[in-house]
Amino acid sequence: MASVDVQFDPAFVEETVFLELRNREALGNCAMAQAFHVQRSALYDTTTATGEREARFQQLAARYFQELGFSELFAKRFEEFPLIGAHVPVALVRRAWSRKEERVELYVPPTPGGGSSLKAFPTLWIGFQVARCLNREQLVAFLRHELMHISDMFDPAFGYQPHPDFGAECETEEDLIRKRFRLLWNLVVDGRMRRKGWPAVDHGTTRLREFERAFASWDPQRREAVWPDLGNRASCTQRELLELAKDERLTRMLGQGGVRCPLCHFPTREGVCDWRGERAAVAEAIQTDYAWWDPVQGACRQCFELYRARLPVMG
Amino acid sequence: MPYKEPEPDDPLELTGVVLPASDETSLKEMAVCFVEEFLRDGWSDEQLRAMFRNPYYRGPYLVWRQKGDAYVEAVIQEVRHIWRPNAAGGATHA
Amino acid sequence: MPKVFNWQLGREMSYPYEEHHPDRQFAFVFNLNRCIGCQTCTMACKSTWTFSKGQEFMWWNNVETKPYGGYPQFWDVKILKLLEEASGESQRWNNDVYQGKTIFEAAEKHVGPEPQQVLGYLPTDEEWRFPNIYEDTPVGKPGAPMTFDQTGTSLPEHATWFFYLARICNHCTYPGCLAACPRKAIYKRPEDGIVLIDQKRCRGYRKCVEACPYKKAMYRPSTRVSEKCIACYPRIEGKDPEAGGRPMETRCMAACIGQIRLQGLVKINTDGSWTEDRYNPIYYLVKVAKVALPLYPQFGTAPNGFYIPPRWVPRGYLKQMFGPGVDEAIDAYLAPSRELLAVLQLFRRTNRIIFRYEIQEGPKVYETERHGKPFVMYNDTIIGFGEDGKELIRTQVEEPFHVRPATHQNSI
User: Fold this and answer.
1) Domain range holding B31?
2) Phi and psi dihedrals of A10, rounded to 5?
3) Are residues B18 and A289, on separate chains, in Cβ contact within 8 Å?
4) Distance (Å) from the C-alpha of residue A166 to the closest C-alpha of chain C?
5) Residue B18 is nearest to which of A305, A308, A313, comparing CB atoms?
6) Domain C31-259 - what CATH class?
7) Is residue B52 part of a domain?
8) How many structural domains compose chain A?
9) Which residues of chain C lie closer than 8 angstroms to A130, CB-CB?
10) Out of A290, A309, A314, whose CB is closest to B55?
């Protein structure tokens, strides 16, 4: 069976070892910490070349990383996902500095002729906070959760496309759809982990609240139906999650709660939709330039003001 | 910041100001300038025509409104002849 | 643990080392009524000392918005909470004597397998990551979220408030970092009381990072040793070319746009008390006018950074931050005495350290009543002298008024 070469960023390794041993010390288990610090302290006085000194610190930390069981913990996780092993030669584990910066990404080299394919030796990038390593159960849950996502990307049944068509008109829309899509995918992964008997990742605010907030525009009945449905799915496809994630509010119709001005395409929250009275002349002026435009689509305040200012001049 | 009440002669709103109309020569020069700017940046003929027809780009649009398709096409070809005599029709830009 | 006397607490307290004091002490006063949060001080320090590899997250000087901000995040809330839990009581004062426990005393009582010299915690990567979080975020009207309080800025206490707290290492008299270091790699210089981490001796245990309640000791992963604010000691030694051999203020002090900062070197007696030095501006502000107060004195480290409290902030918050002298300090500041008003003009008039001032009396400008008290303003001249007795600056209470000649109104 193909296995993944898991490479750890030395900074990640050193910090993990330091914090883990410090934790143990705080709980009264001092022997290993003391031995580590004695050996580490000795390295400070090393007068060899910088490169070699650096390497010695890293090697010491790597040894303890192994002894503390972290290497094995990571290796076992990859064994649980044979699809990843079959496709991914290298996984890089890196230190992230905050929750925002944590990400698990698949880097795919571009293929000739444009685009990219998962078939071409991808690299798995796993960036997360060192603090996660201090709770083994949570670390395992986190890794399983992320790796299940990656495994899905290689599962033909999931139908993963690296650059799917979001059906969005601008970056704002795309970001929104992408966020909602990821949340829905998380729900499916959560359910599958639960059914495997794997402990869940602890989030603080529950997944349910996250879901309710992100899909607040839906009818409560729809939310109540989708939530258990996704949670009980054995599988799904990327396409169906993307369809669900589309926000019906994001239309080109500002008059119906959309986000973009049909004239200038800038995202706006304040559209002009009332064209009665004096504004009728402004609407007419706009239509002279934009024959396809219908006042019901609305216009942003800036475009409105521009056309209104032009009226006395253009006649 | 202190809030200033709009005064009758300083309404703090967008005001349209009339500038004297350009003569034929100036109009031609402006049109040439518009085309040259983007043609030298690698735009195709199709992209240049689209710019002239888009009311959002006021300057080129007014040229097109006043002079029409044929005039704009002639300007494009004239400028292309000067700056890209060997390329045909224009390669696409990014 | 040995006992040392902490004048800020009005009593003796435990400390791992015997009492010992420098000849002079680096000390400073920040006037929080003036801080505009421009962060020039932060950038001055960053561009001087912490722009290299491994120092990316370090801000030896930082300006945080209170009450919600903090670098690292919630540093004060967390240590105060630990203190309260460990000591089993809140931090009470009885007049000017602190009744609660300090971080040293709390550690003494700390029952657990790991002997801890100082009560503290190690901030996570994430807590260091966003130095300016909650900047400009005020406390809103209680019970009315997301509403604009029409009377939020009425005095004496704003209902909607925030303020900027500028912080550097306090070069404490009884430093937490120094107490915690297992290798004694941290020391206090006898000539100026500046606390430094010996870069050759440090072994990166990070006990100092855990122990400093103000979280101004920081671990550098690229060198694997810890670093902290060094009070720009080469400048105090007169080694900066601009100084001309005379003691100069730190970069963060010199850069202060709002002119909120004043730094000095105060003389210290062997018992740790400040030698009476009546016309030293720092001595005057802290000991005579009593308008500048220490930051979180209840930690017990006897910080040498003093703050004039912001007048608009609710007193309860200020008292837990600056101790019991808040009401008197604000009273003194609101209707300043003649001398205080003159001394306040010294802030940032020079980058050289002022060792002594003299006031030459000037004419009365006006008199009025402020907050129920009589206030008279005189246009006195105040002169600042350097260590060598030479005059450094001379300025007046009233800003000078220049009238341009009519013939050349556009030029100076």
Assistant:
1) 24-83
2) -55, -35
3) no
4) 32
5) A313
6) alpha beta
7) yes
8) 3
9) 125
10) A290
Residues from chain A that touch C112, judged by Cβ atoms under 8 A, are 26, 28
Domain residues for the domain of A265 are 254-314
Tell me which amino acid residue A17 is.
V
Strands (E) in C15-145, as ranges, are: 24-31, 62-66, 93-94, 97-98
Hey, what amino acid is at C403? Answer: V
Q: Does residue B48 form part of some domain?
A: yes
Chain A neighbors of B56, CB-CB under 8 A: 263-264
Residue of A nearest to B65 (CA): A289
Burial of C149 by CB count in 10 Å (0-12 exposed, 13-18 middle, 19+ buried)? middle
Identify whether residues A271 and A231 lie together within a single domain: no
| B15, part of any domain | no
Whole-structure pTM value: 0.81
Burial of A238 (0-12, 13-18, 19+ CB in 10 A): middle
B16 closest CB neighbour out of A264, A289, A310? A310
A162 within a domain of the structure (yes/no): no
**Distance between CA atoms of C396 and C401, rounded to whole angstroms?**
11
In-domain check, residue B54:
yes
Question: Do A236 and A259 lie in a common domain?
Answer: no
Flag whether A160 is in a domain.
Answer: no
| Whether A308 and B61 lie within 8 Å, measured CB to CB | no
Last residue of a domain, one of A85, A112, A134: A134
Q: Which chains touch C (3 or more CB pairs under 8 A)?
A: A
Touching subunits of A (3+ CB pairs, under 8 Å) are B, C
Query: What does the pLDDT profile of chain C (412 residues) look like in tens digits?
Result: 899 999 999 999 999 999 999 999 999 999 999 999 999 999 999 999 999 999 999 999 999 999 999 999 999 999 999 999 887 878 899 989 999 999 999 988 665 555 678 999 999 999 999 999 999 999 988 788 778 888 888 889 999 999 999 999 999 999 999 999 999 999 999 999 999 999 999 999 999 999 999 999 999 999 999 999 999 999 999 998 888 899 999 999 999 999 999 999 999 999 999 999 999 999 999 999 999 999 999 999 999 999 999 999 999 999 999 999 999 999 999 999 999 999 999 999 999 999 999 999 999 999 999 888 899 999 999 999 999 999 999 999 998 787 877 887 776 5
Residues A128 and A200 in one domain: no
Among residues A210, A245, A280, the one where a domain terminates is A245
Separation between Cα atoms, residue A123 and residue B39, nearest integer Å? 41
Instruction: Give the single-character DSSP code of C289.
Output: S
Angle (nearest 5°) at CA A49 between A44 and A51: 90
Which residues from chain C sit within 8 angstroms of residue A22, using beta carbons?
Answer: 122, 206
A32 touches chain C (CB under 8 A): no
Q: Which residues of A touch B55 (CB under 8 A)?
A: 289-290
- Output the six-digit token pair for A148: 């299940």
ipTM above 0.85, yes or no: yes
Number of structural domains in chain B:
1
Q: Which of A263, A289, A309 is the closest to B15 by Cβ?
A: A309
Q: How many CB atoms lie within 10 A of CB B73?
A: 14
How close is the nearest chain C Cα to the Cα of A138, in Å? 17
Q: Which candidate, A71, A207, A89, places its Cα nearest to that of A143?
A: A71
